[in-house]
Amino acid sequence: MGSTGAGKTTLVRLLTRQYDGYQGRILVDGAELRRLRVADLRAGTGYAPQDGFLFSDTLRENIVFGAPDLGDAAVEQLARVSRLERDRAAFPQGWATLVGERGVTLSGGQKQRVAIARALAPDPTLLLLDDVFSSVDTETEAELLAELKAAWKGRTVLLVTHRLLGVQGADQILVMERGRIVERGTHAGLIEAGGLYERLFHQQMAEAELDVLGGGA
Amino acid sequence: MTGAVGEAPEQELGKNGIRELDLRLLRRLLVYLRPYRVQVAVSFALLLAVSALGIAAPYLVKLTIDQALESGGQIAARLAELHKIGLLYVAVLLVTAVVHYGQIVLLQSTGQRVMHDLRQDLFGHIMRQDLQLFDRQPVGRLMTRLTTDVEAINEVFTSGVVTVAMDVFTLLAIMGVMLWMDWRLALISFVVIPPLMGMSMAVRARLRESFRKVRVRVALINSFLQEHIAGHAVVQTFNQQERRLQRFTRFNRDHTDAHLETVAAFAVFYPVVQILSTFAVGLLLWSGSKMVATATVSLGTLVAFVQYSQRFYRPISDLAEKFNILQGAMAACERIFELLDQQAAINPPAVVRGRPPARGEVAFEDVWFGYGNGQPVLRGLSLRVRPGERVAIVGSTGAGKTTVISLLSRFYEVERGRVLVDGVDVRDWDPRELRQQIGVVLQDPRLFSGTLEQNLRIWNDALDGRTLHDAVERIGLSDVITRLPNGLREEMREGGSRLSTGERQLVAFARALAHNPPVLVLDEATASVDAATEARIQAAIEVLLRGRTSLVIAHRLSTVRGVDRILVLHHGRLLEEGTHEELVARDGLYRRLVEIQLGGNGTAGRNVAA
């Protein structure tokens, strides 16, 4: 987590080797990233970009983008995990519905959920989710997180997010600011430390509380 | 693998792809020609002259043969006649060249001007649209309207309508001259016209389908390319380079195939035309020679006929291709007018009631609004800001803070209720004057490519240098400017990447201050800047807000403290209002927000309240 411009997206992009010109080392399974075969690295990586970029194809084709051989059962499973399923009624031809140029016919949240399903399709060992909850409402986010928790069992997951409420269970939380990691630790540890994370967490806690309060007022 | 990608757009485009000469569209295009009617008329006149001169040449050949070579008079007289006709022939050629030159220049430049006007209209139209157009339409599609489609319309003028008119005129004129010279030979020459026309029409029908396919497939390749260039990171991270290349191969091959179909049609067509016209010339020579032998027709006439018939078959065979160009252009034309017909949701009122300069009173009365996805953002928002008052708007994400700005500047239209500036509904203001009254500084200010000065002025030349310098000085931007190698003349890259985030903020402040609007809306930045920059920004904000009605979308407690009144928005409604002290004392939502900012426990909040 971290504010705009802190370098979160850059971190994710470096991990998928979209850029090469970094100093220092990035290690994956103990091996320097640039020494790995790009195709191998990417084959083991599931990536959901910030804007949820989709192609003007069917929903199904977008979901199985990185794993074209998946069958219908697998698509159903992915749709369930990404909470896409509950919108099925809104798609006239089900998973065969065309999404329009860059997915213009979908809402922001739907696009992000397709992108999550797409990232999970190749059954990756490393899952990179770049701010994928920004356009889904809090309720969907909670549901998604609950479902995803099952899906990311056995994988390394890197989740970039602004919302901290759903990720307390993370093994490690990294707080970034201006290109650096300024805080790191478990939720409990960071709360204890009383830094930026603690402040933001309570702010969001209270905002969530306000949502309930204000809705009733 | 589904075939859906290729098929759906092909059908969709097919609907517009086939477009016969649509008179309604042509009439609308003529409107764009009206300012150039003199040029168009002259161009047409020159065109007729070119045609007529072209017809004169074979006739001169006839005269040469009949009056100089075959007349049987005195050698000297025949030579004199030969010289006379020869000079006339050269003169005709020269005049033809000059007239043709003038005609081409005039026609092409008129075509370019019409395109210029069309693009101007389109761009102006797009700029007048409310923001909802851009929420709906992919940017690429709008770009295509302004570039490729306008270019296609130029073809209507230059290669389409005009050349077809010229061909038809030439044809009729030649037919007339032939009939006048010798009706029997003329009728013999006309024998091949029906089969030639028939061929041309048949090929046209075939080509129409092929050309439509070519257009559709070019469009497919374009959108495929656009998408994969924009999304190349996704393609790469999913290791799909090979498969995408295969998919592209398919589109690319289809495109080539469609082109080859047209090539095949032409490859059959032109030799057949050649055979037909050669046959016609043969027929002409065969029967003509007999007539020359019996002296019913002069040799010169026969030679002239052979030359005429050659000028005659060409336009007939070209008609097929010309019609296809016209079709493509008509389709482009239809798409352009479709865009131009799209009504801007934001229109100036018939009677303008708002009068600048405004006093700066702002009011929302029971305003309802949503971004068209069924989710209302504002649900009956009412608020009032007095002239000169400084107000902060606070609330959590999604409360509707940013929407308040958009509605105040009338970027969107309210669904229910009213937004008032100086007691006048924003819909009764001229949108341009309304926006001059309201200065808006957004979180991440955009700089346009151009000099720093142009960015400060935003092309407002009425702004004098002193006001500008004064604004720069007071905002504290002067030392930033002195640091730049070219000062105010420094070229800003797109997005202003030469300046830091904080400096861009200051530029936006100076810009707003220089224009001195009665109402100022400020969306406070949340991006992290260092403490020194933060202090400068806060000082600049203070200068900027002084003496005007200000609405600040506040994210920091320090900003909120300095205002006259705080409006707490929640779920699109005004939930609480008052000064900081009042609101903290009230123990409501604001109190909770403050507590959160101060560290999350209740005691800190109470300390502030005390």
Task: Give a written overview of the molecule.
The complex is a heterodimer of chains A (217) and B (610). Chain A is an alpha/beta fold. Chain A has helices spanning 8-15, 38-43, 59-63, 72-81, 108-120, 138-151, 187-193, 196-216; strands spanning 27-28, 31-32, 45-48, 126-130, 156-160, 173-177, 180-185. In chain A, the strands form three sheets. A three-stranded parallel beta sheet of chain A has the order 3-4-5. A two-stranded antiparallel sheet of chain A has the order 1-2. Chain A starts with 7 loop residues before the first helix and ends with a helix. The model of chain A has no long low-confidence stretch (mean pLDDT 83). Chain B is an alpha/beta fold and 610 residues long. In chain B, 67% of the residues lie in helices and 10% in strands. The A-B interface holds A 3-6, 13, 16, 18, 39, 42-43, 45, 47, 49, 53, 55-58, 60-61, 65-66, 68, 96, 98, 101-102, 104, 107, 118, 122, 177-178, 198-199, 202-203, 205-207, 209-211, 213-215, 217 and B 1-2, 4-5, 8, 136, 138, 140-141, 223, 227-228, 230-231, 233-234, 236-240, 243, 373, 396-397, 501, 526-528, 570-571, 575, 589, 592-593, 595-597, 599-600.
Broad structural category of chain A: alpha/beta
Task: Write down the oligomeric state.
Answer: heterodimer
Radius of gyration of chain B: 37 Å
Q: What fraction strand of chain A?
A: 5-15%
Low-confidence stretches of chain A: none
Name the biggest interface.
A-B, 47 and 40 residues
Topology:
The complex is a heterodimer of chains A (217) and B (610).
Chain A: H1 8-15, E1 27-28, E2 31-32, H2 38-43, E3 45-48, H3 59-63, H4 72-81, H5 108-120, E4 126-130, H6 138-151, E5 156-160, E6 173-177, E7 180-185, H7 187-193, H8 196-216
Parallel strand pairs in A: 3-4, 4-5
Antiparallel strand pairs in A: 1-2, 6-7
Helix pairs in contact in A: 7-8
Chain B: H1 4-17, H2 23-33, H3 37-69, H4 75-128, H5 131-136, H6 139-181, H7 183-190, H8 193-230, H9 232-237, H10 241-293, H11 299-341, E1 362-370, E2 376-385, E3 390-394, H12 401-408, E4 416-421, E5 424-425, H13 431-437, E6 438-441, E7 450-451, H14 452-457, H15 465-475, H16 478-483, E8 491-492, H17 501-515, E9 519-523, H18 531-545, E10 549-553, H19 557-561, E11 565-570, E12 573-578, H20 580-586, H21 589-598, H22 602-609
Parallel strand pairs in B: 3-10, 3-11, 6-9, 9-10
Antiparallel strand pairs in B: 1-2, 1-4, 4-5, 7-8, 11-12
Helix pairs in contact in B: 1-8, 3-4, 3-6, 3-11, 4-6, 6-7, 6-11, 7-10, 8-10, 8-11, 10-11, 15-17, 17-18, 20-21, 21-22
